[in-house]
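Next up, a chain.

===
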Amino acid sequence: MNISGMLYGARLLKIVDFPASEVLGPEASEHEIHSMIERCGAVFVKPIFKGGIGKKGKSGLIGRASDLKSALVEKERLYFAEYKVGNAVYKSRGVTFEGAVPAKHEVYFSITDSTRYRAPVMTLTHHGGMDIEELDKTQIIEVPFDPLTGLKSYNISNALSDLGAPREIVSPLVQYLPKLWDLYHHYGMSTMELNPIRMMEGKSGSLVPVACDFKCGFDRDDPRVNRLNLPDDLFVTEGNDFEQEINELRTYQGQSDVYVINEKGTILAPTFGGGANSLVTEVLGNDAIISSDFGGNPPYEKMHEVMRICLKYYLKQSNVLFIIGGKANNTDIFVTFRAMADALRDYFSEHGSTPVYVVIGRGGPHVIRGMGVFKDALDALRIPYRIFGFDSAMTDVVNYAQEADRWMKSGGRAQVATMMGLPADA
């Protein structure tokens, strides 16, 4: 997720006239906070993290206040709060004040691109305000729909009917939820989640859906994202120099999706393709340093620079350089591998040799020429390697990389160093 919370969420929802809770940013004055409390009865104080950080409520990182003094106490507590997820530590950059929305019903709604259905999928339940993973499967519905026609009122109506939702919430949801498809589709989003949408009673007595939390992720290679004029720092999860440098290389041709999993990992895995990225990230776990997708037929200059940055930050600590991807359709493997091999050669020339084991698995146009170029570079640098073709099962290749990492940790690194003419403890 690139956006989490109502600070930016409310602005995006306003584009399609979807109701959202009132929100004030960290610069809000005491008078503004007091006025919001008088209008709404209470405010929720939430820390602002870069990226989509979930489950803040369960971690005690959401405060509620019904008077100004309590709101300021919560602001002081949460303004620079820290939140740890795995090996990553996120630090708040201020707080938002969000007006409370009285409601009897809460709804969960999301849209995401599904590889299972090869289509966008709507997920909906009228048991919102909680983790949907905790709900019984009969209480949630997933509905794939045609992206050419979009999300229609009848998709919503049929889904709510199948769920047995209360009659009073059906009509307003049927009226408002299709608007979210317009926001999703026209601005390059890859996922969107509203939880909860609170069904507030309007002036006429009918219910109005009001978004009280918002998360979304963007396809950064979709030019429609630029319509929103969002600040670039929204797309960096934390103040990480490596991610920042990679993100500066974004072009329409070739992806640059990267996220640091474990700064102290031992497998550096530049990955090509979303499917390969998902498998590698899941199987390698904390052994992996980064999760990445550099597919999309990147030109030589971009791939050379991407590889140079990866090596500059993480090769010294790596036991295994793991270059992996599926069978490409349009990526020129020769160009990609020539750029990566040249970057590796340049790194050794500038910084000296370092003991590492290289594992390569790839398929696609000009793969034989590409592997030949990489093999020549590895032989010249005296680096041990194993290369797998497109006919090898990707799970087997990933498992081999893990085995190589374990071998390096149990004495193999010293053997490789000796073979390369380096001290055993290099």
